[in-house]
Amino acid sequence: MKRAPVAVSLAALLVALIVRGGDARAVGEDEWQLSARAGGGNADGYPFQSWGLAGALDLEYGFFEAFAARASVGVASHPVSAVKNVSPAGTLQARTALVGATYTFDVVRLLPYMELGLGLLSWSGPRAPKTSFGTELGLGADYLITPRWAAGASAQYIFAPADLLNNVMQFGERPLAFSLTLRVSRIF
Protein backbone atom coordinates (compact mmCIF):
# COMPACT_ATOMS: atom_id res chain seq x y z
CA MET A 1 0.00 0.00 0.00
CA LYS A 2 2.84 2.44 0.80
CA ARG A 3 4.54 1.90 -2.56
CA ALA A 4 1.68 3.38 -4.59
CA PRO A 5 1.99 6.95 -3.16
CA VAL A 6 5.77 6.85 -3.65
CA ALA A 7 5.41 5.67 -7.27
CA VAL A 8 2.76 8.33 -7.97
CA SER A 9 4.98 11.01 -6.40
CA LEU A 10 8.00 9.95 -8.48
CA ALA A 11 5.91 9.86 -11.67
CA ALA A 12 4.53 13.35 -10.91
CA LEU A 13 8.07 14.65 -10.31
CA LEU A 14 9.29 13.15 -13.59
CA VAL A 15 6.38 14.68 -15.53
CA ALA A 16 7.02 18.07 -13.88
CA LEU A 17 10.71 17.94 -14.85
CA ILE A 18 9.88 16.99 -18.43
CA VAL A 19 7.28 19.70 -19.06
CA ARG A 20 9.08 22.36 -17.02
CA GLY A 21 10.23 25.34 -19.07
CA GLY A 22 13.72 26.73 -19.02
CA ASP A 23 16.91 27.01 -21.00
CA ALA A 24 17.63 23.48 -22.23
CA ARG A 25 19.88 22.79 -25.21
CA ALA A 26 22.55 20.46 -26.54
CA VAL A 27 26.12 20.48 -25.31
CA GLY A 28 27.48 23.84 -26.36
CA GLU A 29 30.90 25.18 -27.13
CA ASP A 30 33.41 24.60 -24.29
CA GLU A 31 31.05 22.28 -22.38
CA TRP A 32 31.57 18.65 -21.34
CA GLN A 33 29.03 15.83 -21.34
CA LEU A 34 29.50 12.52 -19.52
CA SER A 35 27.12 9.69 -20.50
CA ALA A 36 26.55 6.13 -19.35
CA ARG A 37 24.86 3.65 -21.69
CA ALA A 38 23.38 0.25 -20.80
CA GLY A 39 21.30 -2.17 -22.84
CA GLY A 40 21.57 -5.17 -25.10
CA GLY A 41 23.68 -6.20 -28.05
CA ASN A 42 24.47 -9.04 -30.38
CA ALA A 43 27.28 -10.13 -32.66
CA ASP A 44 25.57 -9.98 -36.03
CA GLY A 45 22.89 -7.27 -35.97
CA TYR A 46 20.00 -9.65 -36.64
CA PRO A 47 17.17 -8.96 -34.15
CA PHE A 48 16.17 -12.64 -33.86
CA GLN A 49 19.67 -13.87 -32.90
CA SER A 50 20.63 -14.19 -29.24
CA TRP A 51 21.25 -10.96 -27.36
CA GLY A 52 23.54 -10.20 -24.44
CA LEU A 53 24.42 -7.16 -22.35
CA ALA A 54 26.09 -3.99 -23.63
CA GLY A 55 27.36 -0.88 -21.87
CA ALA A 56 29.65 2.09 -22.40
CA LEU A 57 30.90 5.37 -20.99
CA ASP A 58 31.09 8.37 -23.32
CA LEU A 59 32.82 11.71 -22.77
CA GLU A 60 32.12 14.58 -25.16
CA TYR A 61 33.53 18.08 -25.47
CA GLY A 62 31.62 20.69 -27.49
CA PHE A 63 33.93 22.54 -29.85
CA PHE A 64 31.19 24.16 -31.96
CA GLU A 65 27.50 24.63 -31.21
CA ALA A 66 26.41 21.31 -32.79
CA PHE A 67 29.71 19.38 -32.94
CA ALA A 68 31.48 17.60 -30.10
CA ALA A 69 34.69 15.57 -29.90
CA ARG A 70 33.97 12.19 -28.36
CA ALA A 71 35.80 9.40 -26.51
CA SER A 72 34.06 6.14 -25.66
CA VAL A 73 34.92 2.86 -23.96
CA GLY A 74 32.47 -0.01 -24.06
CA VAL A 75 31.81 -3.70 -23.82
CA ALA A 76 29.19 -5.99 -25.33
CA SER A 77 28.74 -9.69 -24.51
CA HIS A 78 26.94 -12.04 -26.86
CA PRO A 79 26.06 -15.69 -26.17
CA VAL A 80 27.15 -18.04 -28.97
CA SER A 81 26.05 -21.62 -29.52
CA ALA A 82 28.40 -24.52 -30.13
CA VAL A 83 29.42 -25.42 -33.66
CA LYS A 84 29.94 -29.18 -33.99
CA ASN A 85 33.64 -30.06 -34.42
CA VAL A 86 34.60 -26.36 -34.55
CA SER A 87 34.05 -24.55 -31.24
CA PRO A 88 32.21 -24.81 -27.93
CA ALA A 89 29.33 -22.64 -26.79
CA GLY A 90 30.21 -19.61 -24.71
CA THR A 91 30.18 -15.84 -24.65
CA LEU A 92 31.73 -13.67 -27.35
CA GLN A 93 32.76 -10.33 -25.90
CA ALA A 94 33.65 -7.14 -27.79
CA ARG A 95 35.63 -4.40 -26.04
CA THR A 96 36.02 -1.00 -27.67
CA ALA A 97 38.09 2.15 -27.17
CA LEU A 98 37.07 4.82 -29.67
CA VAL A 99 37.53 8.50 -30.45
CA GLY A 100 35.36 10.45 -32.84
CA ALA A 101 32.76 13.15 -33.23
CA THR A 102 29.08 13.71 -32.49
CA TYR A 103 26.74 15.97 -34.45
CA THR A 104 23.59 17.01 -32.58
CA PHE A 105 20.38 18.40 -34.09
CA ASP A 106 19.14 20.78 -31.39
CA VAL A 107 15.31 20.68 -31.50
CA VAL A 108 14.24 22.45 -28.27
CA ARG A 109 14.40 19.60 -25.69
CA LEU A 110 14.68 16.64 -28.06
CA LEU A 111 18.25 16.13 -29.29
CA PRO A 112 18.73 13.60 -32.10
CA TYR A 113 22.41 12.93 -32.82
CA MET A 114 24.80 11.00 -35.07
CA GLU A 115 28.14 9.55 -33.99
CA LEU A 116 31.22 8.41 -35.87
CA GLY A 117 34.16 6.84 -34.08
CA LEU A 118 37.46 5.14 -34.87
CA GLY A 119 39.61 3.03 -32.57
CA LEU A 120 40.33 -0.46 -31.30
CA LEU A 121 37.93 -3.40 -31.39
CA SER A 122 39.05 -6.37 -29.29
CA TRP A 123 37.21 -9.71 -29.13
CA SER A 124 37.40 -12.62 -26.68
CA GLY A 125 35.53 -15.93 -26.48
CA PRO A 126 34.74 -18.83 -28.84
CA ARG A 127 35.75 -18.17 -32.47
CA ALA A 128 36.96 -14.70 -31.45
CA PRO A 129 38.93 -12.75 -34.06
CA LYS A 130 42.02 -10.79 -33.13
CA THR A 131 42.12 -7.16 -32.04
CA SER A 132 41.58 -4.89 -35.01
CA PHE A 133 40.94 -1.35 -36.10
CA GLY A 134 37.25 -0.61 -35.52
CA THR A 135 34.70 1.91 -36.74
CA GLU A 136 31.53 2.96 -34.95
CA LEU A 137 28.39 4.39 -36.50
CA GLY A 138 25.78 5.54 -34.03
CA LEU A 139 22.35 7.16 -33.94
CA GLY A 140 20.41 8.29 -30.92
CA ALA A 141 18.24 10.88 -29.29
CA ASP A 142 18.33 12.48 -25.86
CA TYR A 143 15.55 14.33 -24.10
CA LEU A 144 16.68 17.16 -21.81
CA ILE A 145 14.98 16.67 -18.46
CA THR A 146 16.73 19.76 -17.05
CA PRO A 147 19.32 22.08 -18.62
CA ARG A 148 22.07 19.74 -17.28
CA TRP A 149 20.50 16.23 -17.29
CA ALA A 150 19.35 14.19 -20.29
CA ALA A 151 17.99 10.70 -20.88
CA GLY A 152 17.69 8.92 -24.19
CA ALA A 153 18.33 5.89 -26.34
CA SER A 154 21.00 5.00 -28.87
CA ALA A 155 22.02 2.38 -31.40
CA GLN A 156 25.64 1.57 -32.22
CA TYR A 157 27.09 -0.52 -35.03
CA ILE A 158 30.80 -1.34 -34.59
CA PHE A 159 32.75 -3.24 -37.25
CA ALA A 160 36.21 -3.80 -38.70
CA PRO A 161 36.28 -1.82 -42.00
CA ALA A 162 39.07 -3.90 -43.61
CA ASP A 163 37.10 -7.09 -43.01
CA LEU A 164 33.91 -5.54 -44.34
CA LEU A 165 35.62 -4.41 -47.56
CA ASN A 166 37.05 -7.92 -48.12
CA ASN A 167 33.59 -9.53 -47.94
CA VAL A 168 30.91 -6.89 -48.55
CA MET A 169 28.09 -9.32 -49.43
CA GLN A 170 28.39 -11.13 -46.06
CA PHE A 171 29.12 -7.94 -44.04
CA GLY A 172 32.62 -9.27 -43.41
CA GLU A 173 33.68 -12.58 -41.92
CA ARG A 174 34.30 -11.33 -38.41
CA PRO A 175 31.45 -10.68 -36.02
CA LEU A 176 30.28 -7.13 -35.58
CA ALA A 177 28.98 -5.48 -32.45
CA PHE A 178 25.47 -4.09 -32.61
CA SER A 179 23.84 -2.58 -29.52
CA LEU A 180 20.66 -0.83 -28.46
CA THR A 181 21.10 1.09 -25.22
CA LEU A 182 19.45 3.56 -22.89
CA ARG A 183 21.59 6.56 -21.98
CA VAL A 184 21.79 9.01 -19.07
CA SER A 185 23.90 12.15 -19.50
CA ARG A 186 25.17 15.05 -17.40
CA ILE A 187 26.36 18.30 -19.00
CA PHE A 188 29.12 20.23 -17.19
Mean pLDDT, nearest integer? 82
- List low-confidence stretches: 14-24
CATH C-level name = Mainly Beta
Number of helices: 2
Number of domains: 1
Proportion of strand residues:
over 45%
At the third CATH level, what is the topology name? Porin
Radius of gyration (CA) equals 19 Å
Tally of DSSP β-strands: 8
Order of helices and strands: HEEEEEEEHE
Side-by-side strand order of the widest sheet = 1-2-3-4-5-6-7-8
Counting helices, strands and paired strands, the structural category is mainly beta
Q: Give the name of the CATH architecture.
A: Beta Barrel
Summarize this, please?
The chain is 12% helix and 54% strand.
Description:
By secondary structure, the chain is mainly β. It is built from two helices and eight strands. It has one domain (3-187): Porin (Beta Barrel). The chain is 12% helix and 54% strand. An eight-stranded antiparallel β-barrel has the order 1-2-3-4-5-6-7-8. It starts with a helix and ends with a strand. Residues 14-24 have low confidence and may be disordered.
